[in-house]
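Quick one: structure tokens for this chain, please?
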Amino acid sequence: MRFSWRIFAGYFLLLGLLAAYVVSVVRDEIKPAMRRSAEAVLLDTANLLAEMVQPDMVAGRLDDGRLAATLQRFAARQPQAEVWGVRQDHTQLRVYLTDARGVVLLDSAGQAVGQDYSRWRDVALTLRGQYGARSTLADAANPLSTVMYVAAPVRDGQRIIGVLTVSRPNLAMQPHIERSEAKLGRLIGVVLLAALLLGALFSWWLSRGITRLTRFADSVSAGGSAPVPHFAANRELDTLAQALGRMRSELDGKAYVEHYVHDLTHELKSPLAGLRASAELLQDDLPPAERARFLQHIDSESVRLQQIVDHLLQLASLEATGRLKQPQPLPLTELLAGELQALAPQLGARRVTPVATLPQAMVAGDAFLLRQALRNILQNAIDFTADEGCISLQLLPVAKGWQLQIANDGPPVPDYALGRLFDRFYSLPRPHGPKSSGLGLALTRTIVQLHGGDITLTNQPPGVCVTLRLPASDAANPLARVLA
């Protein structure tokens, strides 16, 4: 299982347990809280009614008093009300009054008049001067049929002469309890869903960062030049990425030096050997013509050594750069036209004809470096084209960039050399000039890669074709702009 999925699974489990615990606690508190609130209301109601009935009970006119008639009318009322979404068509409050012995004198339900209630807790405790209340099942088979009874004393001075009890079935509160529980369940569901979405987003964000680091590490192990990823919102991942970048720089630096020392040593052997041999021969007494020939050889080999050193320094500088600092929008068409103009003398001397199809194209990069890359490609095309031959230049729009194809009608590249032409110091004999340093195409590839592009070289009858791809200077697809 992926690391991000493990985090999400643990987060989901913890969140689920926490939500279940919260729901359980809140549900366990809803019923007692509502019943405590209802008990407080019943207590106030009982004391209010006890004060109302006290004058009639003391005067002995209870049957003709106002309370008895009021209770009858109260029992017959039909409120026809809707309380917080719950319909209430009849009253559910019951009131009964006992004397000092616990015998029921009045009952709003008309059920218990004359019965002895002295053993019920609400009556018994109140007659003893204590707070009297009880909760009793109306139906032994139904655990939800409990009825709450709250009593208040009726006093004549300090003497308790009766008990007034108010009762209400707890089942009357059940719709409100269920409604509250349903609302709570929906709220918990919304919160849980939102938390899960946030957890999934966090897992995706963390996984995305780890995936970017993994790809970067894979690129480093494969010798690629991917940029070091940056994590603005995650200092730990950003620090790790920077550490991996420094590690790559250190490893690349060691391999770079070893590789360059090996290549440079191999490449300098031949001109140094020629210089040494010519110098030894010049110590002898030679005819003027021979001496001039050896001096010319020393001069040409010195120039070759200087070119190798200059190219190596430039290539090393570009490869160490890693990326362009400030790329600018550049007209690729004008850059190509300028290089063709600069090479016009060589084209004329060899009677080589350029055939160009160059629509207007804009790329992002460094003008000096792109000119150098284009000059190297065009120079190679000219050098390997037969006299009175032809060079074709075609610029085509592709997805998110431009594709430049430069083809000549010279001899094809041998199969054994196709995979090595962009290696440092590797070159093929030129039909119309001395062998090159073998650094031109390597330098060109480095420049193209710095610009975010790629370059390939293939045999394409009747000659060789170099394909160069560069990204456009804006996010728009140049293909749509050219075809519009």
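The two ends are 49 Å apart (CA to CA).
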